[in-house]
Design a protein that fits this description.
The chain is α/β, with parallel strands linked by helices and 709 residues long. Among the domains are: 83 residues, 3-Layer(aba) Sandwich (Trna Endonuclease, Chain: A, domain 1); 211 residues, 3-Layer(aba) Sandwich (Rossmann fold); 44 residues, no CATH class; 80 residues, Orthogonal Bundle (Arc Repressor Mutant, subunit A), CATH 1.10.10. A hairpin with a 5-residue loop joins β26 and β27. The longest helix has 21 residues. This is NACHT-associated inactive Restriction Endonuclease 2 domain-containing protein. Keywords: Plasmid.
Length: 709
Amino acid sequence: MAINHIELIDLFKKYGFEYKKSSSGTGFYAFTFKTGFFHNAEVVYTNDADLEEVEKCLKELENIGYSTKKSLFESIELVSTELFNGFFNVEEWKERISHEYKLYCEKMISLLPEGDKSYSYVHVPFEKDSARSNSNIIENILSEIQKQSSKLLIIEAPAGFGKTCTSYEILNSLISIEGAPLPFFTEFSRDRQAKVFSHVFVREVDRSFRTVKSDLVIEETKNGKIVLVLDGFDELLNETSFNKSNDIDFEKAQPMLDTIGELLTSSAKVILTSRRAAIFDGEVFQEWKDKYKDNFEVVRYKLNSPEVKDWLSMERIGKLEDSGIDIKKLSNPVLLAFLRSISIEEFHLLCKQSSKIVEHYFEAMLERERERQDLLMVPDKQTAILSMIALDMCENDYTSDNRDKIINLIKIKCTNLLEETRQLYPGKDRPTLDALASKLATHAFFDRSNQGENKIEFVNEFVFGNYIANGVMSSDNNDWLASDERFVEPAVQSYIPRNSEDRLLLWERLTGMREFLSASDHMKYEILLTQEVDHPIYIQTTITGLDFEHALFFPNNKIKNSVFNECVFSNIMFNFKNFEDVTFISCQFYDCDYDKNGHPYEINFLNCSDNNGITNEIESFEIKDDDENLELQLEKEILSKFMPLGSNSITRLHIYTGVLYKLDGYTRRQITRAIKILKDKNILESANKSSFTAINKFSVGEVKKILGR
């Protein structure tokens, strides 16, 4: 078989071999590899080679201390595969991932007070590139991974809603598919050290692939032989200064994304999981995507709240509803797993105290911990210690730390609690202060962290958030401040299943911290905890990518000069009398209604849809402006964003719609109307992405005419 010897030599050199020209001959090629005390040699030969010469070559190499191997050349692809499998210990790597997956499953089972016989992943509703999908999310992601082109796959979900378990399912599926890329998984958490993503990435690679240089790992990632799964991407954005801008959030993320962007060539695949959907919205991220558009495609998955019907039997759902429970409030994987696992007798008892489901879960786990560790500490005192640790993490901006440091923290801040507990043991069984603190650091609600040896963290975001909220609410004032707004979301999410009184108290206790939230986050948490949006802070704000359901919108206070972008409203009652110059861009409305008195309203719709005609009905009240000169001037300014002053050509075919609303001297109503007029004239059109407006490339002549070019 013909052989491209230059390609073969380059391939072996890539893996650190040295080509031994003096030992090679017609139809065979000798390569040596030295590492420590081990000297290896491989001779690749073709059918045209003289086998006696090949054997002679092997003998000579053995005589000078090499361990030899020969292989018949069949194809360059097969040689590449064999080198990859050998150097990356593929079978051993798959066994390691399988073991990690089993440990993860066991940990999930251990988080149920009575335990359970088995763990199974429950598929969640999701959206792919803003479109709702009914397919299996794991199969959908695997199909993207198996495509030839390079892709950045982003999996977004609120704190505690299945990002990590989805990552583990992807890993377990990949190692089961013949010929699938080798998954490299790292789970990020915050520690007390400043982090540069490129350094962290190389460190993780070096730690995981000890026998292979990081450069080779990166090259094989680009070739599509390794898929990177980076769980908790946003945990590296530990910026201690507060801000309310998505663009500033993105600026913190950009160096990391640029490092990833440089990897995404050829057939590379990178999967990111993140809570911060805001990072990936807005003009700046779109510009970053445009920068790399010829290199890779971005595919965004959004995990929605779990469907109760996928977790519980109809009998149990009916019993919960008969008890007056709003089952949508229970759409949390930890609680649903708990409700699925308990006996039917305990389930019936729990339904009689329906407002205490969350408390019952934590109480049961803390009681089990007493038995598991022979821990004579009542649940309230365990809660106090766990809350102290959670608040210390919030104050000092970390989510994982060395176990010894956690032990020391418990000893320093909870000395009295530890001493009180020690006295409950008989003298001969009484643990030392260190031993008791050590027991608490191995609590079931802690788990080992992947960020280094002997590091621990809270086992999941729901548990972490519960103890953050518990610590915040134990204060009698509203002054709590965390080092980063990242810590607010898990606290809020953990309290959604609780009763209205508890949710409202948490919202009040977050008053000080709310000053540092972005408008989108503030509104999201307000509606989750209070079931309405009515805070007077929403002036000149942009709310992006939120889903609203069953709530009142501004029944008393006003919202002014603001934009809702790519939001979904379901069963919302709007009080449009309190809306002043508010624009909805690419929003969806399902079964919404509004106060019919007081029109016309100061609201505008662009690229919006509904299922009951609400947008057309409201637009029918609009009073048209009669200033044609103003309209013509505004149309020119909009078109100049596509063809800037001094240019005779279109510089970009599509533009982020939000940019058009930054034109000075015009109201949002006027800008919206001008965009619609230009669309009616077929000069502008909707882009493939709903947040963009595109120019009709067949109307360039008309654009030049309007602009006088």
